[in-house]
Structure formats: C-alpha cells, structure tokens
C-alpha cells in the first residue's frame, strides 16, 4: 500500500494553521487599547492598537469600538480569522463593580467571538502577567491607585480604586494632595517649615508662599499628579516633611493591600505582590515603607515590578478560560512578546 506524504510547504503551512488554536488578550485603558494574539504554544502572532476604551470616558459604545479596532488590526497581522480564536481574556479599565459586568460583557459580545471569554479589571491582567503562576496581589500606583487579589483557586479580593473618598491613598495625586497640606501647614504655622514650599513656589511661578496658597485656593495655579516627582526630589534632598508625606502615602497603600490580602486569606502563605505604576520609580523612599507594612501582616509576601505588557495577562486569561494550562506556556509567551514589541512602536 502506498502512503502519500505531503511535502509542499504551502500545503503543510495551511494544515498547521487549520489545526492550530489561537488566543486573544485585550487590554483596555483610559488612553489606549491593545490586542495581542498568540498561538497555543505561546508564540505571538499579531498585535493591534486603538484609542481609549474606558467606558467612564467614552461610554460602552466607545469601549466596543476600541476593542473592535484593536482586534481587527491584530487579526490582520496574525493572518487568521475571528473563528480561529479559541479563548479570549479582557482587562477593562473602568470595570470596577459587579453592576458593570453585564454591560462590559455586552460590549465584548459585539466583537462576534465564538469562544470562552472572561473580563476582569485591567490591573488584574497585570497580576496575571507579572506573577509567576498568575495569582497573588497586584498594587497599582500611578496617578491614582488600585489593589486587587486573586488566589490559585479563583477567589478574588478588591477595593474600589476610587481614591480618597473611600480612604484609599497611594497614587501620585495623593502624594501631591498631601504635600499641599504640608505646605499649607507651613504657611499657617500649624506645622513645620518645609522645602516643599519653595519648590512649589518656583514650579508654579508664585511670588511668595502666601501667593501660592491664595493661587491654589482661587485656582490661579493648577497642580496635578506630575508634581509628585517634585515631592520625591525634595524628599531625596533630605527634607523631613517631604519624606513623611511619601512615607504616609506608602503606608496607607500598604494597609489597603493588607485589606485585600485579608479578604482572600493568604497572609500565611508565600505569594507575589506585583507592583505597577510610575510612583514605584521613586524607589526605596516609597517601596520600603510599603513593603514593611505588608510584611508585618503577610511575612511570606515577595515583591516584583511588572516588566511585561499587561496585555500578556489577557492572553493567559484567555488560555485559562479555554482550559489550557498556562504555566508551561507563560515563559515562552513573555519572551515572544518582548521580541515582538519592536513592531508595536
């Protein structure tokens, strides 16, 4: 009996494509949306980008539009069809509360996927991407702050991510807010003098400390989270008040993290805390009190900065919800993504 063994490379490539499964991750943010497609081995095949998708800014129609645009770009780059996606994971900025789940899933449904999907808050895919086994706690300290937790068996812990109204401090905006309070206390003589006062006077172009206070009160001068860098500069020069501002915010963020750890009851386990956000660029002035606060409650915690694009966590979530083991594919997916990133720029 004669057996036919195909050797034509075009035919073999088509055969491999027919049997290969692909997984999608989408990271939706307030300024941009990323889509990433990888095959079942964890090799990246396509990437797409679009504009903002946070429904708080663009509505759910805008969320759907951003996801669709990034998805179509990734599909085109991967040279596959929508029907070949076997699982999809979504990290959605603005998806903070249970009541937002259904409209989020409705927006995802407009993509036309015919596969298992899961949607989580966008910082969770950072946790999935950054923790070696996809679970632990993620601490996000950018302009604002957020903390989420996830156990190996799927239990979740979270806070609102809505900031000072709910006693959640930790972002750059909080550092600046606290610094302005310290400057005001210097001006009123309620508190000690601080070099923050002169630094902010120079930064906004005020003529004096009184002019600075008056200008802030009457909205003549406008400050924002970027001023946190100035607070770190003053603290690094040895100003005790600036150092205390940073220590207080870091400690507060640590206590918020401990609340999430307590929710999922992992304080007696060894687990990873994934750190995301620009505030951590401030170094030990911020990270040391944060870590000390967490370790006093959960001594088995270890800390790692996220260096992988969060959208990788979306792909891993897509694999997970489709029943694919991610541990053996994680390293290759991360390596493949880093190699592929040059095409994103």
TrEMBL record:
Per the record, the coiled-coil ranges are none
Indicate the segments forming the ATPase BadF/BadG/BcrA/BcrD type domain, all copies: 24-286
Q: Which Pfam families match?
A: BcrAD_BadFG
InterPro entries registered for this protein in UniProt = ATPase_BadF (IPR002731), ATPase_NBD (IPR043129), Euk-type_GlcNAc_Kinase (IPR052519)
Please name the PANTHER family in this protein's record: N-ACETYL-D-GLUCOSAMINE KINASE
Its recorded name reads ATPase
Which species is the source of this protein? Anaerolinea thermolimosa
Recite the lineage of the species. Answer: Bacteria, Bacillati, Chloroflexota, Anaerolineae, Anaerolineales
């Amino acid at each position: 009996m004669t057996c036919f063994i195909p050797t034509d490379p075009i035919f073999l490539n088509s055969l491999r494509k027919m049997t290969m499964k692909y997984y999608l991750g989408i990271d939706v943010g307030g300024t941009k949306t990323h889509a990433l497609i990888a095959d079942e081995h964890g090799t990246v095949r396509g990437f797409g980008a679009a504009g903002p998708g946070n429904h708080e800014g663009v509505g759910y129609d805008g969320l759907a539009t951003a996801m669709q645009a990034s998805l179509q770009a990734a599909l085109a780059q991967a040279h596959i069809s929508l029907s070949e996606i076997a699982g999809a994971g979504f990290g959605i900025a603005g998806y903070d509360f249970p009541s937002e789940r259904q409209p989020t899933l409705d927006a995802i449904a407009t993509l036309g996927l015919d596969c298992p999907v899961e949607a989580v808050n966008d910082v969770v895919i950072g946790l999935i991407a950054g923790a070696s086994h996809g679970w632990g706690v993620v601490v996000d300290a950018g302009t604002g702050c957020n903390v989420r937790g996830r156990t190996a068996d799927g239990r979740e812990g979270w806070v609102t991510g809505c900031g000072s109204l709910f006693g959640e401090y930790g972002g750059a905006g909080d550092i600046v807010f606290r610094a302005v309070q310290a400057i005001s206390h210097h001006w009123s003589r309620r508190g000690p003098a601080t070099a923050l006062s002169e630094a902010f006077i120079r930064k906004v172009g005020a003529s004096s400390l009184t002019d600075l206070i008056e200008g802030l009160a009457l909205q003549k001068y406008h400050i924002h989270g970027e001023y946190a860098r100035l607070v770190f500069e003053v603290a690094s020069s040895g100003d005790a008040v600036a150092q205390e501002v940073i220590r207080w915010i870091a400690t507060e963020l640590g206590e918020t993290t401990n609340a999430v750890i307590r929710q999922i009851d992992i304080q007696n386990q060894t687990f990873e805390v994934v750190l995301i956000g620009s505030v951590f660029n401030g170094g030990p002035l911020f990270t040391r009190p944060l870590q000390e606060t967490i370790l006093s409650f959960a001594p088995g915690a270890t800390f790692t900065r996220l260096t992988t694009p969060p959208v990788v966590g979306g792909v891993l979530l897509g694999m997970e919800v489709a029943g694919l083991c991610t541990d053996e594919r994680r390293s290759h997916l991360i390596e493949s993504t880093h190699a592929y990133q040059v095409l994103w720029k």
